[in-house]
Design a protein that fits this description.
279 residues; alpha/beta; two-stranded antiparallel ribbon; 10 helices; 9 strands; 20% strand
Length: 279
């Protein structure tokens, strides 16, 4: 590979089974170019890839072919217009989760308001809300200390002020008595023995699975959220492709009103939520 041009390198990577876009993004990463500069590869297609770059690229390609997420290999992922640093301590933010951010922005009051991001991971949801609405007071929790290190690093690098705390769901608030205008969460929602887990082997399993039906953590959040919401406040949850009806039933049973679901980019009911009654 060391004697190949960039064009030849890309062709050989695709022959080896790598997706064309993945090949381009890995090559740009190795060469220190931004991922949006794919046109740069065309302009430099006759450049020769040096031996050191070739060795680094080959190592990354082998990891990608084994199924490791591209974001772990490059160390970052774009979400809601933010460039987030990610690694194996956190889930890779998915575009479908932007549905949750859009919904939260739609229900949050203009001006000063408070929002809680439960199970923040890389900080994607909470940071996106703060970036879009700087007047918001944003709180974020996670059970994982490692995840909070990643989230806090992202917050500092992006210059976004968020209050982080560690613990299991709403118990992480400890002595914090804030009543929130909105609570959002992308909790674990995959059943423990779901066949889809094999494709997610490189990501932290504790952030993926939740009991035999995938709803254990959602049950806890729905049960406890009301006590931490303002009157008229919203609880918005991401869930699995086939769980919308079950999650809406949990919300209704807990007394939430205006319970409904939102579709993701593929037209699947991906998020469900409801409002705490005004009285």
């Amino acid at each position: 590979m060391s004697a190949s041009t960039l064009a030849q390198t890309l062709a050989s990577l695709q022959t080896a089974g790598l997706d064309r876009l993945d090949a381009q993004l890995l090559l740009l990463h190795v060469l220190g170019q931004p991922e949006h500069q794919r046109g740069w590869l065309l302009a430099h297609d006759t450049d020769v890839l040096g031996a050191e770059h070739a060795a680094t690229l080959q190592s990354l390609v082998q990891r990608r072919l084994l199924g490791e997420p591209l974001a772990y290999l490059t160390g970052h992922k774009e979400f809601f217009g933010l460039d987030l640093q990610v690694d194996a301590r956190v889930l890779v933010p998915r575009p479908d989760t932007e549905t949750l951010v859009d919904w939260a922005l739609a229900v949050l009051p203009q001006g000063e308001a408070s929002v809680l991001d439960l199970g923040t991971g890389s900080g994607a949801i909470g940071l996106s809300l703060k970036a879009a609405r700087p007047a918001l007071s944003v709180y974020a929790t996670d059970m994982s200390h490692d995840a909070l290190v990643v989230a806090d690093s992202n917050a500092r690098r992006l210059g976004l002020n968020i209050q982080f705390s560690q613990g299991a769901w709403l118990s992480a608030l400890h002595a914090n008595t804030t009543l929130f205008d909105c609570i959002v969460s992308n909790p674990p929602y995959i059943a423990q023995h779901d066949s889809h887990l094999s494709a997610l082997a490189f990501e932290p399993q504790q952030a993926l699975t939740s009991g035999t039906d995938g709803l254990d953590d959602i049950r806890v959040i729905v049960r406890d959220a009301t006590a931490h919401l303002q009157l008229g406040g919203w609880l918005l949850l991401e869930h699995g492709y086939d769980q919308a009806e079950s999650v809406r039933a949990l919300l209704l049973a807990q007394g939430f009103i205006d319970v409904n679901s939102r579709q993701d980019l593929a037209g699947i009911a991906r998020c469900s939520g409801g409002q705490k009654p005004q009285d």
